[in-house]
Amino acid sequence: MARDPVDVCIIGSGAGGAPMALELGRAGFKVVVLEKGRWHKKEDFVHDEILNSRRNFFMPLPWDEPHLVRGGVDAPFRRTNEAWTANVVGGGTVHMSGYFYRLKPMDFRLRSELGPVPGANLADWPIRYEDLAPYYDRAEEELGVSGEVQPHPFAEPRHKPYPLPPLWAHPIAKEIDAACSALGLHPLTTARGIISRNYRGRAACHYCALCGSYGCESDSKSSTLAALIPAAVATGNVEIRPQSMATEIEVDAAGRAKSVVYLDANGVRQEQPAKFVVVSATAVESARLLLNSQSGRFPRGLGNNNGLVGKNLVFSSFGQSKAIFRVSSRKKEWPWLSDPAPFVQRSVQDFYAMPDARHGFRKGGTIGFMWSHPNPIYAAINIAGTGRRGLFGKALKDALREYRDSKILEFEIYGEFLPNDGTFVSVEPGVKDKYGLPVAAITLTRHPTDLVMTKYLVERGEEILKALHPDRLERVGIAGETTILQGGTCRFGKDPAQSVLDPECRLHEVPNVYVVDGSFMPSSGGVPFTLTIVANAFRVANLFVKRHKG
Amino acid sequence: MDRTTRRIFIHRLTFLGGGVVLLGGACKCNEPGGTKPATAKRPPGIVRQVLTTSHRTFTNPEFAIVSALAERILPRDEDPGAIDANVPEYIDRMLQSPDLHQMKEDFLGGIEAIDRRARARFGKGFTDASAAEQDELIAAFKDAPPDSGEAKFYELLLTLTLEGFLGDPSYGGNKDYVGWALVGFQTTAPPPGYDGMKLLHQHHAAMHAGHDGEP
User: Could you write out the DSSP letters of every residue in A357-370?
Assistant: First the structure.
């Protein structure tokens, strides 16, 4: 049935949707947010690894709602649960670790900086860093970001300090600093979307063991659920409708969006008429929704008459190594090693970009240090292994005792992911989810340069770890991608023939439809996407209000 | 390898901070006839003593085998073992989850298979075998080809044992936090009266709401 019309219907309540809801609500627009997942209270987030991490608390299951993934156009699709972020009010910001780096000015003009790269679809952004900078300030202030401004070779210009001082760092940070300095590198304090002091009615972080991958039980993590949605609802103009799965955007005879069709918590079809539709369901799922919204006017999907919706999908290039330190053998040298402080709080961006291609790549990324995730079942299953090398019995217990006596320092790479013709989202009409909708199909082809780059950054990270003289160094991988960080399926740009969205993130072909998740990003950059998505959503909201108010 | 254990269906899904996760129950949507319980096909190796069992999933003899298996995975030595942590109780309770219906059937089939292997090899049931004999059987299952029913049962057993040893005590295992003590895990435990299993079932029920809605 058709609901009462509203000004704006927003699909998704995460990093993109929530800032839009807040700002449009403040400006007096009547807003409905359709969120596919449940609306949790902070009390629902408990330190229960089985509930949180080992069952489908955040992510759907591949037999209910699969994503199809294949490694290149010639490979067969397989069903997975990859490339989902949390299906909850607040989206992926609920379970994020909150590594809140900004992009660098060069990220906005990658094509100009690098020139043509064979096999890659590089594009400059239609805005500059300077255009987004005020909204980075805004995002950091609204969400609550803890950090400190430090000079380093790739430090982005900024006009304001962080709203909150840095989080307390484990003493190992000082050792990383010394190791980096000896190598001629510039370690920096990682900015975090976690509040280090009480902030706007939210309690400061109490440094529990379980942060990333968990929802925060004290609202200290700066998810949109904790930081933006209560304020949006308090405007009196915003209604959050959880467990509402958008299935299609309907258009009128003139080709403008007129409503969003969705299934409510009982599976009943509803229709929400709206003057404007804002799509923010993740780069993969937003592309899927547009591609599934087919009509006489848009037979290939909404806003897709140029065939670019779903193209140029990017993730974040991933690599990782870990250093194992035995606490007992370090007791004299590092008596503080067993300190339970959960955050390492150090990053290295010296390899964010290279002056020339002597190492086989020009654009790199960030090396971020952290303690290995403390989930004990997760750790034990990895330690036990299976097959001929698998451990059980006394050998397994000895290995678990060794783990108890260890601190495991890891780094993770957030590297540029070169967009290419072989990496895109399509829909598979033959494979449907539990709602009966064709599912998103991801074709993933890695540009060889990405792998050269990731390996190089992993090796540099390992040099830092080696300088700390660990008992053991283990390389996890040099050729991965972090699929919870996703962008690029609806590139923004000035040329309607080359992009899906205009610089204000409206569909070129349907100007009353906005897309504000990571989809707009023509390139991944060398940092996690979340803060940039939030900042851009504040930018788009500001332009929306200017254009449509009064 | 008998037919029952070959049916074991394990999913390796990467959830956040979960690494490799095992979940059962896929068959209900994807495999025609997959929901049919294997109970009827079970050979008479173990007599199900439903009326006398004091457990939820297992008969008393099955519970004894599960206890013996879990204890060989994590034996008591200078530190507590699986039985000290109430791991069998955890497995017994966890396999009651409606979403794990298929996994329960598969797990029961695996218990039977290893017990039958014990009888064939040593002329006695698994629980009557010596610790060394039990280890030999478990190792044979562990080292079987990766896609075999034996290897999958081992992985399921290992995973459920580690979940029971290291999960929140409200699920029935990790008694007196002995598992967390072994690995040195420290956390603020959930509030008093917390019942993870109940929440898990409620969450799954909520996830399944609206399933049948036709768009």
Answer: STTS-SB-EEEEEE
For chain A, domains (ranges, CATH) are 6-548 (3.50.50.60)
* Contact by Cβ (8 Å): A313, A43: no
Using CB atoms and an 8 Å cut-off, which of residues 357-386 of chain A contact chain B?
373-382, 384, 386
Is the predicted ipTM greater than 0.90, yes or no? yes
- The C-alpha atoms of residue A206 and residue A300 are separated, in whole angstroms, by 50
**Is B19 in Cβ contact with A49 (below 8 Å)?**
no
pTM above 0.90, yes or no: yes
- Is B211 within 8 Å of A394 when comparing Cβ atoms? no
Of B13, B158, B211, the CB nearest to A392: B158
Quick: pLDDT tens for A454-482.
999 999 999 999 999 999 999 999 999 99
CA distance A415 to A406: 29
For chain A, the C-alpha Rg in angstroms (whole number) is 23
Q: In A120-151, which positions are buried (b, 16+ CB within 10 angstroms) versus exposed (e)?
A: bbbbbbbbebeebbebbbbbbbbbbbbbeeee
CB contact, 8 Å: A181 with chain B?
Answer: no
Tens-place pLDDT, residues A128-150: 999 999 999 999 999 999 999 99
* Rg of chain B in Å (alpha carbons): 18
